[in-house]
Automatic annotation (TrEMBL):
One of its GO terms (molecular function) is metal ion binding. GO terms for biological process: amino acid catabolic process. SMART domains: MR_MLE. This is Mandelate racemase/muconate lactonizing protein. Mg(2+) binds at residues 198, 225, 251. Residues 146-246 form the Mandelate racemase/muconate lactonizing enzyme C-terminal domain. The lineage of its organism: Bacteria, Pseudomonadati, Pseudomonadota, Gammaproteobacteria, Alteromonadales.
Amino acid sequence: MLKITDIEVLHLRVPAMDADCEWGEDAVIVKVHTDKGIVGVGEADSSPLVVQACIEAPQTNFYCNGLKRLLIGENALEIERLWNKMYWGSNYMGRRGAGIHAISAIDIALWDIAGQFYGVPVHTLLGGKYRDKIRCYGTFIPADKPEDNVAIVQGLKDQGFSSIKFGGGVMGDDPDTDYAIVKAVREAAGPEMEVQIDLASKWHTCGHSAMMAKRLEEFNLNWIEEPVLADSLISYEKLSRQVSQKIAGGESLTTRYEFQEFITKSNADIVQPDITRCGGITEMKKIYDIAQMNGTQLIPHGFSTGILLHASVHFLAACEQGTLMEFSQSSSPLFTSLVKNQLQFDNGFVAVSDAPGLGIELDEELIAKYRVN
């Protein structure tokens, strides 16, 4: 038995608390401590203060518990049982959204613990690795001025990326600006590079999305991501029948239950669970199986710290069809430096680590510098 003795929640933030914050500039990290000195690390790409409350809250009733009180004294190696205990015991405040984000962080840490305990990488615990490296696409937030994106794309080409995606910023705010940015990126990328766009649901309606997809056809986009909210299943289903590009979505969804509905009713070509939000590694396995049974490609969302990167790599390495992943181009120190031994991108791919657990070494000085709580 490997007894859980503490769950430590670390809130990190680069900008001031009252300043605007962008993807990758804050983080909530979880350390699960055990009585044998093994410490597992996880994260949730969510609101840090909300996730912290979900973990540290006292009991309201037996159906409404903070996650920490549910796990202290439990055997850290009984991962699936503990996932179910957390899910049931936080039902009132959990089930979806931030409650599942908090479970995700702890679940990832438990898999890290198990790998360290047994002396094997997490991908071995998941059934073994199918590949030694995983192809990546580079994701960036576009510059407001279309012409300023040319240098960004050239930098990605110079790094060896053969696939890129951009979204956030001004994308989705104005049809003409969207067109101009996509045109500039495609011309800089050339005809062979894969180009994807992410609207973060800012096209809002099925009709507008269909119009924009038609307008952008000349640029041969590989996929259009989150044109509308993932809740709008009918819109996704209509778009998948009307447009030539592949449709992708699902990064904000949680649990196999939401993904089952999205995959079977939206007719999306690509589903994009985030391992730090969907329910962690335990739930991601189930979502992958649902996707495979329904002919849907799973390409995880990932734009946070190196903890998310390591967890996603281990997961995809153990998936037969886990062949493509997102690689953030964030310049935030929480992405570039939080994990001291961060997996490195090399000529289109990231190598799969064979270190025990997730193989993560955190920079404690950086944590002290940016820690809020």
